[in-house]
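Support reply, case 0932

Customer input (verbatim):
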Amino acid sequence: MLESLVQKNDRKIVLLVLDGIGGLPVKDGRTELELAKTPNLDTLAKRSALGLHLPVDQGITPGSGPGHLGIFGYNPLSHQIGRGILEALGLGLEVSDRDIAIRGNYATVERVGGRLIVKDRRAGRIPTEENKRITSKLSEAIREVDGVEVFFSPGMEHRVTLLLRFPEELPEGSDRIRDTDPQKEGLEPLLPEGENEASERVASVVKKLLQRVEELLSEEPRANYLLLRGFSQKPKMESFEKRFGLKACAIAVYPMYRGLASLVGMELISFEGQSIKDQISTLKRVWEDYHFFFLHIKKTDSYGEDGNYEGKIRVIEEFDAHLPNILELNPQVLVITGDHSTPSVLKGHSWHPVPVLLHSPYVLGGTSERFTERECLKGELGIFPAEKLINLMLAHSLRLAKFGA
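Our regenerated output:
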């Protein structure tokens, strides 16, 4: 129905994602958003529509992939995508039907009583330069396993992407392999077991690869192991522009989020630097070239996962200081939200609804005083599925025709 109603115009839409923005009380009964000093967000909230979105469903904790696909307007249950393909696309790797893409974490492990135990799943978030050195060492030493080409590509901090290129096109389901990341410190790494005949063949290659990697990393002080997750083949997705009639671009630092945007056909904008200021400068530079702008800010999520509520507050306050520079561009629709909640008290993603602020000339407004979880509960948008956010953005930019006679 939505596609049949879409009509084009020149109005600008900005979707600004503060990754993992939602929280829970962490100090004095207040969340990170409630503790942060955000005068610009507060002023904007008073004249905007507020609410909360559900990334997947009640009680379901989403990964970053489903979280973003939802706010991009794609049903996350119908489009289940492995993290590996997102990292690969975000790094600009060419992915074919012969490939399996895998997301890797450099990690710190230790032998305890003959068992290999994960001490730090992120190797202390090693500097990106150290990552590049280690990845280069692996790339030079491992070029193939059992006739399968192996490509390593460094990401940010502890992240690395692997691409396994087989001699022939792989059947569907070849990526159904269990992650080796146990998701918690103090546990043993898991074995990459396949779920079917096709994936078992891939898993056997992965097992041999990991043995060689473990040997090569054994002398590293921090990144002495590699945890794998998100085994994935390249999916087929309808493009964002075809689906919603919007020429879209993405301004994001981290490869995974660039990958998500690339997967739905958004153009990836290259820019110098990694700061919020750099991203907003880039937004200004390309303002005349697109209708839809996706900006992604990562560190709210990173600090939440580390349990560092003060760090998360600092990023929120830094963003607030730069908000007037976005408002100067006068977008017809500005949405500020997250892909999921990452409460510092949980040190991870959670199932809690995610705050949403929608600013346009066509809102009721006046329902809320601040952009916080509790104030969003008072807002006119209520609690709604994340995939319906695109409907609201299109409607507020006057891009949806009337339905029916």
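We compared this against your earlier run and they match. Two observations from our side: Residues 2-81+237-396 form a domain with the Alkaline Phosphatase, subunit A fold (CATH 3.40.720.10). The chain has a mean pLDDT of 93. Please reopen the case if you see a mismatch on your end.
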